[in-house]
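#lab-general

N.A. 3:47 PM
ok so I finally got the sequence cleaned up, no stray characters, all 450 residues accounted for. can someone with queue access submit it? mine expired

B.Y. 3:52 PM
send it over

N.A. 3:53 PM
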Amino acid sequence: MADKNIKILFAASEAEPLIKVGGLGDVLGSLPKALYGRGYETAVILPLYEPLLKERGRFKLLGRKIFIRGKRAKESVSLYETKLPRSAVKVFLVENKRYLSGGGVYFSKTAIASHREEIERFRFFSEAVYQLIRNGILPFKPQLVHANDWHTGHLVRLLGEESLGVGTVFTVHNLANQGARGKENYMAEGIKFSDVVTTVSRTYAREILTPEYGFGLDRILRRRKKIIGILNGIDFDSLPKVPASKDAEKLKLQKLLHLDPGLSRPLFAFVARLTDQKGVRFLLSLAPRLVVNFEAQFIFLGTGEEALEAALMGLAKSFPGQVAVRIGFDEPLAGKIYAGSDFFLMPSLYEPCGLGQMIAMHYGTIPIARKTGGLADSIKDGETGFLFEGKNDIALFEAAARALDVFGDFAGLKRMQARAKQESFSWKLQAAEYRKVYRAALYAQKRRAA
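B.Y. 4:20 PM
back already:
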């Protein structure tokens, strides 16, 4: 049975290119576009954060002093509308001075909820979106709300507790980040009250059912009949074109970051948040060993825990010309790193999906990653990249040694680069999987309402 113009509202904390901190923003900037016009009319709703205030002149004002009567004191919001670039997907932005529009997206450089103000921000956002839907103020009448991560878990609960005829899908992007305070846990609310729960890879869907990866919520997850894992995709139209010569890109990258030039030097790269989850401490052990013994070079780009930032900066100081570190988010530089590096490092302790390995392969850069979550689902060991299982620097070194063996075999390296570039991670296949999820959620909502 074909879908006919089903209206889906995506609720989240970020969406590229309007506002982005991590992979969640990439997904919300691409999945709604992949679905639009294929039986679905999609829209996105976000907070209007302080960095977006200067852009308000480009947005269409839909209403001021819209009063939100939630469990907290009455607050007013302003509602704006724009579109995702190169699409017909509408984006609604909710402005509120007290809760939403002061400061950046998150209150921590790691993006892990650790501040009371951040939890209050997204509770209010959930209440505001709920009231906008409930009172018919939003000029988009969703049949389904697709909520994402703890930031919108409370919205799922509010929709689930009152019958508005709206189905819900809740996607877990990172179970470790739960938005918990006291007895409140907004990740748990999203899991408990949604019609369908999904996560961002098949392996991660299995992993989070265990105490090791469940972060205290594995019992709640096991009570659900099924957690559906769908690997994230990539919007390739938003990426710079693959350069004609990878060697030329490597030399340009070395020059840009003041690394000693040379194609014979294996170049390893890391682009991610600087947290323990990403395995940065393993890299602090690996890098000196490979620099000294194999004349390898390393590039680190990211921001996060101050201790890890300082350790990486110390590494760059110890090995000038061999190690480059840039602290912060820099999309243009990240693109150059993906295109010019030989190997891309992702030694994550856990990785729900990961987009870095997919982008790297698109540019013929070989990923070296821990066999977990979406890394296990997207990398073919020995064919398109290198996987290892242990949670230690020894296992990472053994995988890096395999990569160095291939680097020394020019023909073998070119074959692996070609295989990596041939892998397809477009949203076309994943969007088809989400269509099945939406049908199941709508069916569950109808049964609930009956």
